[in-house]
Design a protein that fits this description.
The protein is an alpha+beta fold. The chain has 19 helices and 16 strands. It is flat and about 115 Å long.
């Protein structure tokens, strides 16, 4: 009941024979057979679970068209979804606490049942939520004590300087709150309101208090050096806060300032009016802070212990829940016969794995102590089987690259078999640098060396993608280094891997023995450069023109060869499906037109490369002792682009610059050709 028959990957540590067999299966997808399973209802779960472990069968949905909510095991699937939600919440809490959850327990023989996991996981969820709620309460209480301690400590300075001196009875009539607007009774001293507020809100609070009291209140503030816990939001967080103290007189004014401060999110604390009360409150706050810190520490230790035990069971529980959900999803695809108390399942199996499937299910039935053995029938069907291409660690990346463009049809020639070599080679032609290629190959080799350490682990989206293409990176680097060797280029610098340039410059006496890098005239001093491009081309004035022309022609040749391979592979597909019409009316026209146009273009490219278009030196040069070129053709090389365009746009036009042909090609476009041929100054040898 695997999700996709082509998703199964053979083990990277497979034996040589198995790896060779898998590589051979890349040529075409495996032949598939449709089978039917008839099993008693009581054994349905065990049989489907065994099918999942084997990974040999892709189930067909026999209830297609039926709503998910009307299927037999919808409640079990919903229960698994809810358990996975709890597991995700547990994982988030483990990550927040810095505890690494255990890995999957797929190989653990003593895995618990789904019912056991359900009971334990829900109990653990309630326990953790209770502990977190208690810890949050303790943190808020501890933070309140910290703020109260700060208010007591920082308020002493302002209270001493801000407190009003005692007034005489005659002066009370003209005191601060003698205004009738605020009413209230006269007092012999100012009242105090103190607290803490977020630093970004303190300026606004001071401005509003000043306007609301019409300047009849004194506002003092000072930033707290340490960050304090902000409990106003859903998630408490440490923020920068500021201590403030407001001096006023009168109960009405005090209520107004208190409401304003509360509106701005400030936390107000009691401030004692006498030194004796201040000392007593300070002692009490410090005592309660010590007790609160001890309780908070114990609460944190208990919560961490609960999370640690959850982390140890997280891997096996996650595996059990995921496995059971897939089992019930697969059972929802089966058909249950209530009268005969059996369930029916249909699925696709690789033909060469059919016997192994039968043997494994029979053994599983015996191990489970089932009364009856599963009945497996082969079904003849005209349905199109799924594409099953077995892959291993090496070929999986290349096959995934092919599948992004389209999955091959059943029994179609698989492009992934050719992609393993052609894709890195085409990348090498584009990349073409010996130094950078080796670095890229080294990076790929480092990823390959991490297989045992990283296999089966969650690496994240980006790293997972790069790790999946580790063999692609390795081969891309190797082919890039190989083509860079042909280009004689490393780290974008010309390199003489096989000696210095074979081109030498001229002086009056003849060859100077020096390379012609700084000389005007050059000739080959001997055999051509043994491997790749002569490094002298990297320093010439026409470097860009030369390399653009060379690489463009190489790209055309390789591209035409690759497209020709695809056309001939389509012939194999037509023969496999016995489609004679496509052979006659698709393959033959494709080969004719493609070969006649682009195949001819490749032929002209090789013809142009193999022809010596150089011109012999003039008589003055010969008298100076310079050697003359032998066998050269005294005419410019023809443009192949113009040749290809004229094939269609001007098929009957005269050819003025021939690529090959008779000794002198005449015509209306070349009226002087006959005279040139008679003078003997320029002779075109027949090729």
């Amino acid at each position: 009941w695997r999700a996709s028959p082509r998703a199964r990957i053979a083990s990277p540590s497979c034996a040589t024979a198995l790896c060779l067999a898998v590589m051979g299966d890349l040529w075409r997808s495996k032949k598939m057979s449709l089978v039917q399973l008839v099993v008693q209802n009581g054994a349905a779960h065990a049989v489907v679970s065994k099918l999942g472990e084997l990974g040999m069968m892709q189930l067909r949905d026999l209830n297609a068209g039926q709503s998910f909510f009307k299927r037999s095991f919808v409640d079990e699937v919903r229960e698994c979804d809810d358990l996975q939600r709890i597991l995700r919440s547990v994982e988030e809490q483990l990550v927040e606490a810095g505890i690494a959850p255990s890995s999957s327990g797929a190989t653990d023989p003593s895995l618990p049942s789904l019912d056991t996991v359900d009971a334990k996981l829900r109990a653990a969820e309630v326990e953790v939520e209770t502990l977190k709620a208690s810890q949050s309460l303790f943190e808020r209480n501890n933070n309140a004590l910290d703020e109260q301690s700060i208010v007591l400590e920082m308020g002493k300075k302002f209270y001493k300087t801000g407190a009003a001196p005692a007034l005489s009875e005659s002066d009370m009539a003209t005191s601060l709150l003698s205004l009738t607007e605020f009413g209230g009774q006269a007092s012999s001293m100012l009242s105090v309101l103190a607290g803490v507020i977020k630093t970004e809100s303190v300026a606004a609070l001071e401005r509003v208090v000043f306007r609301a009291t019409r300047g009849n209140a004194v506002f003092q503030q000072k930033t707290v050096k340490t960050k304090l816990l902000d409990t106003s939001g859903k998630v408490p967080e440490l923020v920068q806060k500021t201590f403030f103290m407001v001096f006023f007189s009168g109960a009405v004014l005090g209520d107004k300032v208190s409401k304003i401060a509360t509106y701005f999110g400030a936390t107000l604390y009691k401030y004692p009016s006498t030194a004796l009360d201040h000392a007593a409150m300070t002692y009490e706050v410090h005592k309660r802070k010590a007790e609160s810190a001890q309780v908070l520490e114990q609460s944190t230790a208990i919560l961490r212990g609960a999370l640690t035990s959850l982390a140890a069971a997280y891997g096996p529980w996650s595996y059990v829940v995921a496995r059971e959900k897939m089992v019930y999803d697969a059972l929802n695809k089966c058909e249950f016969d209530l009268k005969r108390a059996v369930f029916l399942a249909e699925g696709w199996v690789a033909t060469d794995e059919y016997e192994a499937l039968v043997t494994s299910l029979q053994s599983a039935a015996v191990a489970q102590g089932l009364d009856t053995r599963p009945i497996i029938n082969l079904i003849q069907s005209k349905l199109t089987p799924p594409t099953y291409v077995p892959t291993n660690a090496f070929t999986s990346g290349f096959q995934a690259l092919v599948n992004t463009y389209g999955t091959p049809r059943y029994r179609e020639v698989n492009p992934g078999a050719f992609c393993c070599i052609l894709f890195p080679y085409l990348f090498g032609i584009m990349f073409g640098d010996f130094g950078h290629g080796l670095l890229f190959a080294g990076f790929g080799y480092w990823l390959i060396s991490k297989e045992k350490e990283w296999e089966g682990k969650d690496l994240g989206d980006m790293l997972e993608m790069v790790y999946g293409g580790r063999y692609i990176c390795f081969l891309n680097g190797l082919f890039g280094a190989f083509v860079g060797l042909l280009y004689n280029e490393a780290f974008a610098f010309p390199m003489g891997f096989f000696g210095t340039s074979r081109w030498e410059g001229f002086e009056e006496e003849g060859l100077s023995g020096m390379t012609c890098e700084h000389l005007e005239r050059c000739e080959l001093s001997g055999p051509i450069y043994p491997v790749g491009i002569d490094p002298i081309w990297h320093v010439t004035e026409n470097k860009i023109t030369f390399f653009n022309s060379l690489k463009m022609k190489i790209s055309i040749v390789v591209g035409v060869l690759q497209m020709s391979l695809g056309i001939y592979l389509s012939l194999l597909n037509h023969l496999e499906y016995k489609d004679v019409k496509k052979v006659l009316f698709q393959f033959i026209p494709e080969v004719t037109f493609f070969g006649g146009i682009f195949g001819y273009l490749v032929l002209t490219i090789f013809m142009k490369w193999s022809t010596d278009w150089s011109c012999p030196l003039d008589h003055a040069a010969a008298e100076a002792g310079l050697p003359a070129a032998e066998g050269g053709i005294c005419q410019p090389a023809p443009s192949l682009l113009t040749l290809l365009i004229n094939m269609f746009m001007s098929p009957t036009a005269d050819i003025t610059v021939p690529l090959y042909g008779i000794e002198c090609f005449g015509g209306a476009g070349n009226p002087d050709c006959a005279g040139v041929a008679e003078a003997g100054d320029c002779v075109y040898p027949a090729l």
